[in-house]
Amino acid sequence: MSQTQPRPLHHNTPLLYSHALSRAAGTHVWLKMDALQPTGSFKLRGIGHACQTYAANGATRFVSSSGGNAGIAAAYAGQQLDVPVTVYVPETTTPGAIAQIEMHQAEVTIVGRSWQEANEVALASCSPSDAFIHPFDDPLLWQGHASLVSEIATLGLTPGAIVTAVGGGGLHCAIPRAMPLS
Q1: Torsion angle defined by CA atoms of residues 181, 30, 15 and 67, in that order, rounded to the nearest 10 degrees
Q2: Does residue 141 contact residue 47 with C-beta atoms inside 8 Å?
């Protein structure tokens, strides 16, 4: 008997052709609209996948560190999976990001002047039954983020390149693993 995979927490987002960017670049440019995810960013792809995996393996709480989008994604995933979430954020986190995390019933702890400081406290707070949801450095996140490339492939497109912004690098780690070999 095979196990069915749970439905992902993220949405399949549109891929829109950009005439202006295509003209400027001299090649076809498509934009993946991940701002349309329930949390407003691609982060839900990987964090949702990691949270689903950790919950299936018995995690009773998710602990995350974030400056914003990763914490929002962890809070949303925990709410959807009915798993409590604590997100540690630095003092520099915007009130809007904190409000979005709290909107998904997560506990927010503001600590430190930088993400690194908040991350250290988050790691120290974990119990054996908790899952630490790293904002970018976890192969489970990369596997979830790779769904972006899979969605492009289902449209019959094989990109010559994918351009992304790089913050922590989680999406950047996912794309080369997901790209078809030429």
Answers
A1: 90
A2: yes
pLDDT for the residue numbered 179: 75
For 60-111, write each residue's pLDDT tens digit: 999 999 999 999 999 999 999 999 999 999 999 999 999 999 999 999 999 9
Contact 81, 51 (CB under 8 A): yes
Residue showing tokens 């749970």: 6
List of residues 6+ apart from 93 with CB closer than 8 A: 66, 67, 68, 71, 110
DSSP assignment letter at 23: H
Length of the chain: 182
Q: Do 141 and 134 meet the contact criterion of CB atoms below 8 Å apart?
A: yes
Task: Tell me what the mean pLDDT of segment 159-175 comes to.
Answer: 79
Residue 18 neighbours by CB distance under 10 Å: 13
Angle between helices 170-178 and 43-56 (to 10 degrees): 80
Taking the model in full, what pTM does it have? 0.91
* Exposure letters 148-161 (e unless 16+ CB within 10 A, then b): bbebbeeeeeeeee
- The tokens describing 52, both together, are 């689903």
Q: What angle do CA 96, 80, 12 make, to 5 degrees?
A: 85
Cα–Cα distance between 31 and 38 in angstroms, integer?
Answer: 18
